[in-house]
Design brief:
The protein has 265 residues and is an alpha+beta fold. The protein contains seven helices and eleven strands.
Length: 265
Amino acid sequence: MSILSKKYLPPLLGVATLAWIVGGTYWFQVHFCDTTSTTAPLVAAQNTTNHLPFYFPMGDSKPVFMPESFSFFKETADFLNDNRGKKLIVNGLFSSKEARTANSRLGLERAESIKKALVDIGTLPKSIETQSTQRNNLFFVNQQLFDGVEFKVEETVEGRFQALNLFFKSNKYQFADSDELKGYFNALHHYLSSHPNVRLKITAHHDNTEGGQVSRKRLAFMRQFLKNYDFLPQYFAFEDLKDTQPFSKTGKLKNRRIEIRLIIP
């Protein structure tokens, strides 16, 4: 063995040993350990690999909470409050083995009880939707159902079509089309075509230094722009607010705008 080999062999062996330990630990975790956390906000609402931190007695709609329940609900509530474009679907489950088989509301009552727990901790009621499903393969342990509800997070209509603001240079009333706008209006056209009760409210504004007709010209340009996308006139409500509702008292740019908002009955 050369002197060079003797000199560098121990460090190389040390590096190889460390790599084996780290790599082996990672491989073991990936293949044999569940590394997801039921307390992470989004995972808390979607994770199905771990039992939820509460259970329902057989035939009962009132959940029995555990010490970790508070963290679960708190982080889920925080997630929904921070993501107003998201909606939580709570699906209550029930089985034909339960005493209240004839009452299909058992699953819905379970979902409503979980919704109440989230609302009590600060979640907006409109961000939670409840539903019910009968499932006969539910697993009971000592007459206790640990997975009596399922969670799914969806994007709301408001989330898919965020309110749009189009800004203008001073005394300008036209804007250039773009791939981003094309994607937005094409998706919006498809949605409105299948939801005839939904309307868009479009308001035009100018700042207090521009001429009084600028917002009207912006509105006229917007009408033609939407016509080019084959929107039907009945989809829209137009309003020229001139400079009566400034978005900002200091920033002129934000006052030179067209606002597009969904109106959902």
